[in-house]
Specification:
The protein is of the alpha+beta class. The chain is built from six helices and ten strands; from the N terminus they run ββααββαββαββββαα. The termini are far apart. Bound molecules: iron/sulfur cluster (2 copies).
Length: about 180
């Protein structure tokens, strides 16, 4: 049986004050906004971390500063509808079994898809002050939000990997739209 985890966001803004790494699915979503898309195409700055290309909300917008997130305005998210996946379920994250984040995390539940792939629900923001407070966390709901991204972009990811354009946001944005 899963352990009960409680969480209520305290709206402290700490998670928006850290570097926010985005996924390709996030870039795709952000590029729905014409203005942001233009900025991404003009200014995106991939960073290489241990051989992998990484983008953050700030590096996509051409900013050298890693934090706070450039979309935080007056302590509110200015792109709420388009916000990255991690912002939707933080301090939790849904991870395919093959992905091992470099920062400390704690797996709290696991699900297998009908195709047999293993996904974990993890606490990635171990210092989030909202943990342990209030409502019991609905694991199914978090899995649903997290998995939707992987399901929706499954074919896209696959094609991108095949065509070896994963490292280039510009190609990504231009090829999937
Ligand atoms: S998710 Fe956690 S860190 Fe982020 S604003 Fe809420 S309480 Fe603060
Ligand atoms: S995209 Fe929005 S919710 Fe996410 S870190 Fe930036 S300001 Fe916060």
């Amino acid at each position: 049986m899963n352990k009960i985890i409680r969480f209520t966001c305290q709206k402290c803004g700490k998670c928006c004050g850290a570097e926010v790494i985005v996924s390709y699915a996030d870039v795709y979503r952000l590029s729905e906004d014409e203005k942001i898309r233009e900025e991404i195409l003009k200014k995106h700055q991939p960073r290489q971390v241990k051989g992998n290309f990484v983008y953050s909300t700030n590096s996509l917008m051409g900013l050298k500063e890693k934090y706070p997130c450039c979309f935080l305005k007056d302590n509110k998210c200015s792109i709420y509808e388009l916000r990255p996946q991690i912002c939707r379920i933080y301090p939790f994250l849904v991870l395919p079994d093959t992905v091992k984040p470099k920062r400390p995390y704690k797996i709290i539940a696991t699900r297998k898809t009908s195709e047999g792939s293993l996904f974990h629900l993890a606490i990635i923001g171990l210092n989030c002050p909202g943990l342990g407070i209030g409502e019991e966390v609905d694991f199914d709901k978090l899995f649903e939000i997290g998995m939707k991204e992987y399901e929706y972009f499954k074919d896209t990811y696959h094609n991108l990997l095949l065509s070896e354009i994963t490292a280039c946001t510009e190609n990504f944005v231009n090829n999937v739209k």
